[in-house]
Design a protein that fits this description.
By secondary structure, the protein is of the alpha+beta class. It has helices spanning 2-22, 44-47, 241-257, 276-297, 300-303, 325-331; strands at 25-39, 51-62, 66-77, 87-99, 116-128, 131-145, 152-163, 176-188, 219-222, 226-231, 262-268, 306-312, 333-344. 22% of the residues lie in helices and 41% in strands. Helix 3 crosses helix 4. It starts with a helix and ends with a strand.
Length: 345
């Protein structure tokens, strides 16, 4: 077991030194892992109370899923024995971590849904007074972004630390083992949410040249508009089957009443969570989802009579209170507004 752990430790140190030379760096962040250290092997259990541990790791991302970091470890354990000094340990080494990506390109979720589970392996050289020993650790945790900019991630972790003790005459040479529970903090690596250029689709009707001009006495005028509203789930532009019947009604209206042509506005909206730019993009995608449904359910001859404008309006024009769950749900919508052209004399 000890030989396996030592080999693992050597591999981690090698990875920390060599990976930055062979791969393109993604980002540099600073990780702080403060925690409570609890010994669970003798003689530490009998000599020391649980204490504190802090690990400092300036981390370099190697692709979206892997990072490496040099590491500094500081640990202190209060003594249970009167007159005996507290146990202190410091160590230096390296860390290799695998995690769910933090960038929007590989992790497009928002809020707590963007959570990043992680696991790491660590190898260190640790000193207690004049005694130096190799040590290794393994940890698992989960981190959550604290803002849409993702400049700070935080969350709980558990670490198992193992210090190898060499043969020393007259001393207990059991390897020391520690459980460490804490909350991790990772700073830096600001991310920008992707911005998709708003797309506008327009279909304009032109009178064919070989058709006779309408009589001068006939005037086209717009009738009152007809509105159809579909709702979308949180952070989604997928049109659910429960909403399709609303657009089916819009299709029936357009088919039956747009013989003289129609002007149709399809406006998408979002609730107020997240960044404005992201909500603008999401609202546009919702509008395009409604537009695509209409385009695939209308006959071509009908489509040629339509002028369609598709826009994403972000969090503008809320119909519900964004401070309440029900209000936010009402604001995640697309509105299909049909202006029917009628003939009058």
């Amino acid at each position: 077991m000890r030989h396996t752990l030592k080999a693992m430790a050597a591999a981690i140190v090698g990875a920390v030194l060599l990976l930055p030379l062979s791969a393109s760096a993604q980002e540099l962040t600073l990780k702080l892992d403060p925690g409570v250290a609890i010994p669970f092997t003798e003689p530490q259990v009998s000599r020391f109370y649980p204490g504190g541990d802090l690990r400092v790791m300036p981390s370099l991302g190697i692709g979206p899923y892997v990072s490496v970091a040099p590491e500094l470890d500081l640990m202190g354990l209060p003594s249970q024995i009167s007159g005996v000094a507290a146990g202190t340990v410091w160590g230096v080494g390296g860390e290799l971590r695998v995690q769910r990506p933090h960038d929007y390109a590989h992790n497009s979720a928002t809020g707590v849904d963007a959570f990043s589970p992680w696991a790491d392996l660590e190898a260190l050289y640790s000193r207690t007074g004049d005694l130096g020993r190799p040590s290794a650790a393994a940890a698992v945790g989960v981190a959550f972004p604290t803002s849409a900019a993702r400049t700070l991630w935080t969350g709980p972790f558990f670490r198992l630390a193992y210090t190898f003790d060499g043969e020393r005459e007259g001393f207990n040479t059991n390897d020391a083992k520690m459980m460490i529970f804490g909350v991790s903090f990772e700073f830096g690596g600001s991310q920008s949410q992707p911005v998709i250029q708003e797309r506008t689709v327009e279909k304009t009707v032109f009178v064919e040249k070989d058709k006779p001009c309408p009589a001068p006495a006939v005037v086209q005028e717009k009738a009152p508009q007809l509105d159809y509203v579909v709702r979308f789930p949180f952070n989604s532009d997928v049109l659910k089957s429960s909403q399709q019947h609303i657009l089916d009604e819009a299709v029936a209206t357009i088919t039956s009443q747009c013989g003289m042509g129609c002007s149709i506005n399809i406006d998408g909206y979002a609730s107020s969570e997240g960044q404005l730019a992201y909500n603008k993009t999401l609202s546009g995608e919702r509008a395009h989802a409604a537009s695509h449904y209409l385009a695939t359910h209308l006959e071509r001859g009908v489509l040629r009579q339509l002028s369609i404008n598709v826009q994403g309006k972000g969090i503008d024009n809320p119909v519900g209170n964004n401070a309440t769950p029900a209000g936010r749900a009402a604001n995640r919508r697309a509105e299909v507004i049909i202006h029917i052209v009628k003939e009058s004399k």
